Automatic annotation (TrEMBL):
Species this protein is from: Kibdelosporangium persicum
Protein name, as recorded: cysteine-S-conjugate beta-lyase
Coiled-coil region(s): none
Lineage: Bacteria, Bacillati, Actinomycetota, Actinomycetes, Pseudonocardiales
EC number: 4.4.1.13
Top-level EC class as recorded in UniProt: lyase
Length: 400
């Protein structure tokens, strides 16, 4: 597929070979047949930053795979505190940070420590399917507060969230910001309104901020816990370098505890009950945070280019009903009807008719049945192939 001349390419990210991608052992490419293009799970197709690869290689070559000696605690703790201060001006203590293998484990631990089966947990939908599944399988009462699709784009229904929290006596709010799957970045004013709800109803807020470093200008990420002392004292922040540097397979995340009682309860658990992160994952994560700026800056220019290209394609399919560009992430959330789909399985229909695997549908919560999520973190040429297949399906559906 020819790349439009208006799309500036970057050799670091655009020289991807399809045959090499298909040989990758990860789930993104191995879950599809040889004629299918995957644009579903939130993994980027790009190679990991060289500084990350070198940090891991150096650790191995130095023979440093024994039990680590970290008398002052895992160095991820200070690394994350430094990262938050440098990027957001958020001053936190390294002693309030802990590490886990991934955000889902962190959420599960927090719900285990702070709630019991039957307790109500509020979540804004659509939302990340593993979070919704976690709440359900842990037998907590999931209280859905839908976002609103307006002429201006996706907006959080703050009044609806307040009503849902009050009417169901919620104990916890799971906040996802930047939002997955819509890509919205909540403004400081919107966050302040949510913080007021949390204060009024004494909620524990579990804030997933893993996409915080994938925000497009002029939007800015505001850590929820940075709003005020009261908000900080009731907020646990989940984060990782996994999404922003394409290293999810390192299985490494961090959790900042605002509530002192909850941190003490966590530390009172048996040592290593919830697993530990490996020295390799620590080395890779710290290298990304400390030395990955050039790679990340180039990445954001490529992702910005790609999201604009997807927006152009969606306008071609949808006309006046086109969907807004995401303000963050490399995920595009749009209505399946733009591709001529109206059934209950838009993912399956897209796979069958276009040979493209997207994500979407009811796993993202109520009212998501007719939505699809497209991962555009790939090369310009592969993105053109994906959009061409989807465009052909859309035109055939319209009879043009």
């Amino acid at each position: 597929m020819t790349v439009p001349t208006t799309m500036a390419t970057d050799p670091l990210f655009d020289r991807l070979r399809l045959d090499e991608l298909r040989r990758r052992p990860g789930v993104k490419w191995q879950r599809v047949a040889g004629d299918v293009l995957p644009a579903w799970v939130a993994d980027m197709d790009f190679a990991v930053p060289q500084v990350v690869a070198e940090a891991i290689s150096d650790t191995v070559h130095n023979g440093d795979l024994g039990y680590p000696n970290w008398p002052d605690g895992n160095p991820l703790r200070a690394g994350f505190a430094d990262r938050m201060r440098e990027r957001h001006g958020w001053q936190i203590a390294a002693s309030d940070v802990r590490e886990h293998t991934d955000l889902i484990q962190g959420l599960q631990l927090l719900l285990h420590l702070s709630t019991k089966p039957g307790d109500a947990v509020a979540v804004q939908t659509p939302n990340y399917p593993p979070f919704l599944a976690t709440i359900d399988t842990m037998r907590r009462k999931r209280v859905n507060s839908p976002w609103l699709r307006t002429s201006e784009g996706w907006v959080p229904d703050i009044a609806g969230l307040a009503d849902a929290v009050a009417s169901h006596d919620c104990r916890v709010l799971v906040l996802v910001n930047p939002h997955n799957p819509t890509g919205r970045v909540l403004s400081r004013e919107e966050l302040a309104e949510i913080a007021a709800i949390a204060h009024r109803h004494d909620l524990l807020v579990i804030s997933d901020e893993i996409h915080a470093e994938l925000v497009f200008a002029p939007h800015e990420h505001v850590p929820f816990a940075s709003l005020s002392k009261d908000t900080a004292a009731r907020t646990v922040t989940l984060s990782s370098a996994g999404k922003a540097f394409n290293i999810a397979g390192l299985r490494c995340s961090v959790v900042h505890y605002g509530p002192r009682r909850l941190l003490a309860l966590r530390d009172a658990q048996p040592p290593d009950l919830y697993g530990v992160v490996s020295p390799l994952s620590v080395a890779g994560t710290l290298a990304a945070w400390r030395h990955g700026a050039e790679w990340q800056n180039r990445l954001m220019r490529v992702l910005d280019r790609n999201r604009r290209r997807v927006a152009e394609a969606v306008r071609e399919w949808a006309g006046d009903a086109a969907e807004p560009m995401p303000e963050a992430t490399y995920l595009y959330w749009f209505r399946a009807q733009h591709l001529g789909l109206s059934g209950n399985d838009p993912v399956g229909e897209t796979l069958r008719r276009a040979k493209v695997l997207l994500d979407g549908g009811p796993g993202f919560g109520p009212d998501a049945e007719q939505y699809l999520r497209l991962n555009f973190a790939t090369s310009a040429s592969l993105l053109e192939d994906i959009l061409a297949r989807l465009g052909t399906m859309a035109r055939h559906s319209r009879g043009t």
